Amino acid sequence: MRTEQTRLLRSGVVAKRLGLHPLTVRRWVKEGKIASVQMGREARIPITEVERLLGEQRAGVIVLYGRVSRHDQQPDLQRQVDQLEQWALVARTGKTTMTLTDIGSGLNTERKSLQKLLALVQDYQVAEVVVTFSDRLTRFGLSYLTALFSGYGVTLTVLHPDEDQTPEEELTQDLLALIASFAGQLYGVRSRKQKALLDCAKQVLAEAAEES
What we know:
The structure is a single chain. With 212 residues, this protein is α/β, with parallel strands linked by helices. It has three domains: 4-54; 61-158, Rossmann fold (3-Layer(aba) Sandwich); 167-211, Orthogonal Bundle (Helix Hairpins), CATH 1.10.287. The chain is 52% helix and 17% strand. It contains nine helices and seven strands; from the N terminus they run E-H-H-E-E-H-E-H-E-H-E-H-H-E-H-H.
C-alpha cells in the first residue's frame, strides 16, 4: 500500500492540479524541474513534488464528523459536535475545520455527509478526520476507510478509542446494530415491531452473557 510519501501521479493529473498543460508538465520532467519515477514508458510524479510546486504542506481542512442513528438523538449529535469543536480549538488551534453530520445508520454507506467527506478526501482537500468514537464514522469496514484515508495522506483521529471494550462487547454491539438496521428496513425505524425485535435481541444477548 502506498503512503503519502510514495504516491505517484500521472502527468495529466499533475497538470490539472497545477493548472498547467500536460505538455508543460512533461517538458518540466525532461528538464529536471519536476522529479519523477519512470514506470515503463511513462514518468510518474510523486505527490510531494506537486505539493512543493504549489507551496502546499498538506494544509487541508480538518473535518469534524458526527453521526447519530435517529432524529430523536439530535441532542447527542449536538454533544458530539460541541466536543469535537472544543477539542479542535485546543488541539488544532488556528487550523481550518469543517463540521459534517449525518443522521442515519452506521451501516449505511450512502449517508450524504459521509459521501461529501469521501469526495473531499479524494480531491486532496482533507488533512485529518476526527470523530468521538469510531462507530460514529462506520459500524463496519473501519480498516478499509483508514486505508483509503492513508492513501490520500489523511489522518483519522478517534477521541475515545474503544480500548475498554472486550471482543464480546464489540460483537454484541455489532449484532445489535445489524438487527436494528435490518429491522428498521423491514418495519420502519420508529415502528413498534422494530423496537420489540431489538429489545428481544438485547435480552437474549444479555442472558447469553450471564450464562457464559
